[in-house]
Amino acid sequence: MSDPDISAACRAVLDEPDPLAKVKAARQAARDWRAGRLDWAFATPMPNRPARTGRPPLLPPSQMPKRGRAGSDRARIAMLHALAHIEYVAIDLAFDLVGRFGAHFPQRFVDDWVEVGAEEAMHFALLERRLNAYGARYGDLPAHDGLWEAAEATAIDPIARLAIVPMVLEARGLDVTPSLISRFETAGDMRSGRILRRIAEDEVDHVAAGVAWFRFLCSATRIDCVQTWQSLVRLHFRGVVKPPFNDSARDRAGLTKEMMAGLAASSDLPHTHLSRVRGGNS
What we know:
Layout: H1 6-14, H2 19-34, H3 73-101, H4 107-133, H5 146-153, H6 158-186, H7 190-221, H8 225-236, H9 247-253, H10 257-260, H11 271-278
């Protein structure tokens, strides 16, 4: 009897509706892959949508309540909840990327994105624990489904998926997280600030993985990376890629100013913000 394959493990993550059970499934899939207990094969199809419990309720972005600026416990809970939702969906995005598109790539693609999925699960667990410290939990507030809608829109095209999810949507986290850290720390919540610093450092690597594998596909098909990325963003991204950009973090991830040129004007965030993010992992 052959070993189970990686696509079955990915499907198990996507089919788990309970958030904490999904975290456990993601970590188990990563352990099994690292230990060689999963074959590099893709016999199991991915679902159109991951399983959900109904909590949190999903609203259109335009109907989401304002979260405030972290000056109160209520505002900080809302911000942590929004971040937890992003990380929760990111677990599914990473494992869907592996299970749906892994056959298009070398085996190290699976190595990279299984590791990303495990880290997203860790991020969610950290944020859920922080919510618990405030007397709240994930699912208490509404959220929107924009991240998974982007996955649905790119479900048949690996280069489009890489162009939009890690290189646009996840890259936005590089831009906004420094200001979120500052808000929490100004409010005296240093623990949340430390968690966000850890997440920010990991997300640079996640975006970098997206850029690297996007460039791999461009090289394999002999197409221009910059022009192709810009075209795919204009085709698939609903909205405007707008500054301010954390150019230093984007550059570390491989999203150069050359790539951003033509999509939006470049604008650096203060370098003191980035130095605080980098300093959080010592």
